[in-house]
Amino acid sequence: MVSTTGSVEGEPPFELDESLPGNKRKRRRNRNNNAKKDRKKTATRDLEFETTISNIPVLSSTNVFAKLKKLDLFPEISKEVNEKQLSMVEESGTDVNQQAGKQLSVIGPRDPTEEETTTARKYIQDNFITRSHGHVKVFNSKTSEIISMVEFLQIPHLESQQKEDFEFVCEFIHSCKQFIIPHYGTCNTIDDQNGFDNVTSMIGWSQDTTQLVILEKYLNKEAIEEHSQTYQELKISSTKAAKILWDFYTTFANVACENTRKEMIDNASLTTASTSLSFPMSTDVDTEERINDLLPLTFAMIIPIIKSTGKIASEVDSLDIPQLVFPDLNLTFTLQPNTVPILILRDRQYSHRLINSSSSSSTAGLGADDFSRLAICIRPPLPSQLLTN
């Protein structure tokens, strides 16, 4: 008998029976080697989760092991952007990428046409892994790096305190609108296609991360003077709103939350960019030039709301069902109505895009124009956005 030790320290050895025919011994050896590799990968993923995401075990979760391969869902748009950049290079005689540093795109892409969106949706439906409920962890199948984690909370089944906290944050953010310069405050959506409330791009953090604040350039000073008492009350409630967001993040992913908050506090005086609550609707990352340093992950929650009141839109049947798509991973999260997805993701390392499931929205029992989604995000600045002198 020949004894071979397994790959995990402390586990009992397995044995190969030399009395078996050679081909059977080879098959058994291959099975044992594969089992060792699987145990090693599992141990690596578990360690990655504990040191990056949370040291509190998740009782029930579905794992997705995604392969990374570049995929362009809108090739014509990319072609147009490349042609415009080449034209700029020819006209200026200078490489625009060198002028702009390491920006992923110098010229912003146009929105896809309805036909392009329909084609992309059909491809996603036929070829992508889809998740829309429960608790899901997504790993890079090659490196065991965790890419994203999402929990889909059903609004009708929320605990009373959870729903109360969601309502408080939504109503606080809605109340901020009266103190935002009208030119910005009346802009209800980031774009008509995706239907997400734009106000989160105008609200950010105090330097110590204990309060939410309207970013300086959006402040309506006349409204503050006219309604000073209301504004002071709003500032007081901002502390509670901020605490609720951090509590949600801590409960969901305590290690990631601690790292993110430390990063934001340490760099608060160094950043050249405002850290707002807005969720990045899309990122396009070159798979060959991914940012591989250990940046804190992005945390987000996406809440269906009634725009006119800021309250949670519960018990509605919406035909407007966006998808959070990871094209290079062949993966999509479906944002169902009556659901609050809470998630963390490496949005600066893996491309993603929000795509609607239909060209027009319709909501039973609620005017379509009054239905929206509030995407709240906690996202530290990039190192390139920090001052160096």
Reconstruct the topology from this structure:
Layout (H helix, E strand, L loop, with lengths): L1 E3 L9 E3 L5 H31 L9 E5 L8 H18 L3 H4 L14 H14 L1 E3 L2 E7 L5 E9 L5 H17 L5 H4 L17 E3 L6 E3 L6 H6 L1 H25 L1 H13 L15 E2 L14 E9 L10 E2 L4 E4 L4 E4 L4 E7 L6 E4 L7 E2 L6 E8 L11
Parallel strand pairs: 3-5, 4-13
Antiparallel strand pairs: 1-2, 5-6, 6-14, 7-8, 9-15, 10-14, 10-17, 11-16, 12-13, 12-15
Helix pairs in contact: 5-8, 8-9
| Rg for CA atoms | 24 Å
Q: Into which percent range does the helicity of residues fall?
A: 25-40%
Content of β-strand: 15-25%
Number of structural domains: 3
- The separation of the N and C termini measures 67 Å
Task: Write down how many β-strands occur, each being a DSSP E stretch of 2 or more residues.
Answer: 17
Average pLDDT reading: 82
Largest sheet: 6 strands, mixed
Shape: globular
Pfam family, one: 2OG-FeII_Oxy_6
Describe this structure in words.
- This protein is an alpha+beta fold and 389 residues long.
- The chain folds into 3 domains: 51 residues; 37 residues; 266 residues.
- Helices cover 34% and strands 20% of the residues.
- The chain contains 9 helices and 17 strands.
- The strands form 5 sheets. It has a 6-stranded mixed beta sheet, covered by helices on one side.
- A hairpin with a 6-residue loop joins strand 7 and strand 8.
- Helix 5 packs across helix 8 and helix 8 crosses helix 9.
- The longest helix is centred in the first third of the chain and has 31 residues.
- The radius of gyration is 24 Å and the shape is globular.
- The protein starts with a strand and ends in an 11-residue tail after the last strand.
- The N terminus is likely disordered.
